[in-house]
């Protein structure tokens, strides 16, 4: 197998973590995300070497590393393929049944019988 084939097969198996180094989801941009939709999207995502930086993380860093100073917008030298897997309602529903998304509620909120929401602040 040639060196080029080895590089392509290694890159095809790589993907960035679903949560960035600060703990924010790369899909919904929420901290410590556990949403079924984000987990499912990441599980089926396909990534490839960034054409703008060649995997270096700097624009044209693969072409001129001595003068590359602008950060690339990719995720650690990788970009996600847009048409990797269509997320249908059926696919998300199956995954959501295994790991439901938490529902946000305002702190101290309660519903009073016969009235609208009371915030209890």
Give keywords:
alpha+beta; about 25% helix; two-stranded antiparallel ribbon; disordered N terminus; about 10% strand; about 120 residues; 2 domains; 3 helices
Structural commentary:
The structure is a single chain. The chain is of the alpha+beta class and 121 residues long. It folds into two domains: 67 residues, no CATH class; 30 residues, no CATH class. 25% of the residues lie in helices and 8% in strands. The chain has three helices and four strands. The strands form two sheets. A two-stranded antiparallel ribbon has the order 1-2. The chain has a two-stranded antiparallel ribbon with strand order 3-4. A hairpin with a 5-residue loop joins strand 3 and strand 4. The longest helix has 11 residues. The termini are far apart. The N terminus and C terminus are likely disordered.
